[in-house]
Structure formats: structure tokens, C-alpha cells
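U., I forgot to send this yesterday:
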Amino acid sequence: MNSSEFLKQINSYYPLSEETTAALMSICSEELYKKNDFLLESGSMARYYYFLQSGLIGYYTIDEEGNSIYKIFFEENSFVASTSAIIKNEPSDFSIIALEDCSVIKYPVKAYRELLEKYHDLALFHIRYLEKNWVVKKEPLEVSLKFETAKQRYLLLLENKSLHNRLKQHHISSYLGITPTQLSRIKKEINR
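Result:
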């Protein structure tokens, strides 16, 4: 298991001691998922945290009409989990799916939570990660969902070229909360 990028990402939030690193690595394993495999299905308990080494992952829920509504996409070097399901210890409302073949490092929620209790530096990493990714990054997203048009949000998504080019049209329209036809109209307008 090549864990160097995984540890580099963790240490960028808070540096871990050798002892903590060894304890963390002892609960990690590597797993491959094929395109369209589920890492977690809606209605299941979230038993793992994941670190995406390669590939693309989508995080979605199903609306009343049975449509997939994508909330977020994860590229390489991202930490992925159904965080609120883990915190509430309830089945996940979201499915986590491989949109491409993926290689992940995964570690069990229960064992990881035990390490958080024991290792102060790991707990500080966890707090800083949550603050940055679930508070700082998420608030503008929630505001933009309410106040920005789909076109403005599409232009924001376009700024991340690598992510945009990897997504299928139905993933993008679902993420923007519009139909594929509306997405085509927006693209035509932009490319005029």
C-alpha cells in the first residue's frame, strides 16, 4: 500500500507523530472499486472512511421522483465518507459510487473513532479537516444553491476543468438541479 499521499494530506492539516501514524496505518487497507461499484449504498450504515488515491467518486441521493441528485464529486487525494451518517450513527441518506475505476485506502469508522480518543494529534487533524471541508467550503455551496442561477453554478464548475471533463452530462445536470435539456441550453448560451 502506497500511503505517502494519504499521510501527506493528513499532515497538511496537522502533523502526526510516528506513533500515531503507525496506529492509523495499522487499521488501513487498500481496496479497488470498479466503475459503478458502490462504496456505500443509501440506507446502509457507514462503516468506513475512505481516501481516494485514483479515480472519481460521486455522492448522491434519490429524490421523490426517483432521480439521482448529485451533491458533490471527489477527485484524487480526497477524503470521502458519509460524515453526517457517521456522526449520527444512522443509515446514510446518500450513496457513494465509483464514477471511474477507483483505488482507495479505507479505514473502519469504529477503530478510527477509538484512535481519535487516544491520539491528540489525530483528533486535531480531524477537527481541522472538518472545519475546512465541511464548514468553510460547504457554506458558500449552500448559499450558492439558494441564490445563484444554474448558469452561474455551471460556470463555477467549469473553472475546475479536470473535474468538469471527467463528469458525464447527466451527473452535471443532476448536480446543478436542472434537466439535461436545460444544461444543453446553458452550454449553447455560453459558447455563443
